[in-house]
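User: Hey, quick favor. My workstation is busy. Could you predict this chain's structure for me?
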Amino acid sequence: MRWSRLFTPTLRDAPADADAVSHKMLIRGGFMRQLHSGHYSMLPLGWKVHEKVAQIVREEMNLIGGQEFLLPAMHPKSLWEASGRWATMGDEMFRLEDRSGNEVGLGMTHEEVFANIATEINSYKTLPQIWYQIQWKFRDEPRPKAGLLRVREFAMKDSYSLDVDFDGLDRNFDLHHEAYLEIFRRLDLDAMPVEASSGAMGGAGSIEFMVASPAGEDDVVRCPNCDYRANVERATSALDAIADDAGPDAPERFPTPGIRTIAALEEAGAPAVSQIKTMVMVVDGAVTLALVRGDHQLNMQKLQDFTGGINIRPATPEETVEHLGANPGSLGAVGVNDEIRILADEALHGRTNLTTGANEDDWHWRGVNIARDVNVAEWVDLREVAAGEACPKCNTPIEIVRCIEAGHIFKLGTQYAEAMGAHVLDADGNKRTIVMGSYGIGVGRNMAAIAETHHDDKGLVWPVSVAPYEAVVTVMKVDDEATMAAAEQIYADLLAAGVDAIIDDRDARAGVKFADSEVIGIPFRLTVGPRGIKDGNVEFTVRDGMVTTDVALADAAQTVIDAVAVAKG
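Assistant: No problem, here it is.
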């Protein structure tokens, strides 16, 4: 490619509304432009990087036996109703009607469609199967942000394993786990596998692959001493044992005028660790109490995962008064009728002599024995862990790191196959529901994750594996015949060796050419100028670290060829 023909509208400054580093860099480098909120046009450089990321994903999927499909992006309502997700996906699904009045949705993911195709498998002998596609997905994100990290339209590799039993699912899950680690290695992303919530996908379990970055939206708990890793939505920690006094034979009601917070009640003499925080939640229309220790926070995803609720929200003040008789700040679960479901966090199990609201404004109970005085329906892990708490495996203080979710793999089980009627006959002639796994990687998000972790103050520093061009031959004086001839020969040699190279043949100042190649992040640069040609040398610059050395003109192309080969491993 000749730079004089390349459409790459680089900018001196990033747009004022760009917040994440990747957003700024990809706009400045001319990789993409925003069409409207959450939707981006990929320009030539951006599309090259995007497709190199996609090709690495494709190659690793093929190596584990994946077969590539391309399925429609628009799905009939009936398919999603069969799985129950037409309702559960809520407002995030783009929905519309065709001219005949049929309701359809734009695919957020493709479990239903692949499970529907799986109904054509009749015999266990056809299994296992791994099917995948790289297809556009649509999600009506309420707040798209950070460039490609949270968008409404994006390319994703979604793959699906189909097995006759759960042992087969485990094998395919492990295959994908290893394939994902190799994908991230090739993308030069330090992605750590962590335990995760399956959320709306459902299933028996899932693993996220997380890349540490301040631009991320997920918090990951990790132990610096052992291999414990978990999203905060699934994380646990070891708490110090608390030796409570037995307390009185029955709760004692006492006045607390004006006290509405855990902190205020602590100042009045009730330590937060000995308080019960009562969260009044509405789960699919039913008022539910979630109890946690006073110094702990409720994790909403843990509550949703346990209850299976579709619509979960805090109760309004009016609802709390209607069902409990008091306003927030004076609420508790002592004496609450059996019609209200009470879930309590495991950290409260066995606790005595506690303090909680009395369900009357400005009054509390003390001396509460939770087993005696509260009708707990189920004990659940509801609390959100905090940095510094003890690792559940080795007791080392844990840390919490903000991360980008680069990939997610799920053990779906039989729910989608059952909904679509995907069954096979086993060796004994018995009907078996196909067991499925689902495995996703966002192509654009990984492109952004690379940009977030590979840049400096000059611009992007792409790994060779995904760089828009692996090398640039920069011509210092295009009207000098000897200089141009030498540059053209080097460029031709690079192309002949399979190096993805570009020659900067623009009639522009050297500073402009250098700045453009640096903001774009091309890994290797050969600078060819009249003075160097006279001495038989060219400059070889490695973008990562901006290290420049002189190499012999005769060795210039081979120097880059060798550097590219080493970088690709």
